[in-house]
Design brief:
Glycosyltransferase 2-like domain-containing protein, Spore Coat Polysaccharide Biosynthesis Protein SpsA, Chain A, 8-stranded mixed sheet, single chain, 157 residues, alpha/beta
């Protein structure tokens, strides 16, 4: 059974972080990379059992995948949450035998000024031993499988 490490990059995101962490139940590890926060991110991370690392100047965001315990990495933003459907999809995914080279995308639903819109899918679940990336998110490579459910992106905390 594959295990998932979630990686979240934060900077003064304590007001929205708890909402995300509550939905990461399918993940076996949550790793928060904090970039000079001056709010209570550390306290929120501790309350939810997430591991916290300080961002190191000059290290690209994608390099922190090597700090994760598990090979499968789920990349999420602090203003996002997994829908119930996406949580269920990830639990089902864990029961399967994904190939290391498989890529998995998630459809984004974004809130803007109280209105919801559906955006295109983005690769968010990837095996770190097969793809390296430098930005916050892995590249949107061809051939990704889209998991049922939505990644919800909120406008306000």
């Amino acid at each position: 059974m594959p295990k998932i490490s979630a990686i979240v990059h934060t900077r003064n995101d304590a007001p929205r972080l708890g909402r995300l962490l509550e939905t990461l139940r399918p993940c076996d590890q949550v790793l928060i990379i904090d970039d000079s926060t001056d709010d209570s991110v550390q306290k929120v991370a501790h309350e939810y059992g997430a591991a916290l690392r300080k961002c190191i100047s000059g290290v690209t965001p994608g390099a922190y995948a090597m700090d994760a315990i598990h090979e499968w990495i789920l990349c999420v933003l602090p203003n996002e949450s997994l829908s119930e459907g996406l949580e269920a999809s990830l639990f089902s995914w864990k029961e399967g035998e994904p190939k290391r080279e498989d890529l998995f995308a998630m459809t984004i639903r974004e809130e803007k000024e109280g209105q919801w819109s559906e955006l295109s899918s983005e690769v968010r679940l990837i095996n770190r031993r097969c793809v390296n990336w430098t930005g916050m998110m892995p590249p949107n490579l061809e051939g990704a499988f889209v998991l049922p459910g939505h990644l919800l992106r909120f406008d306000h905390p």
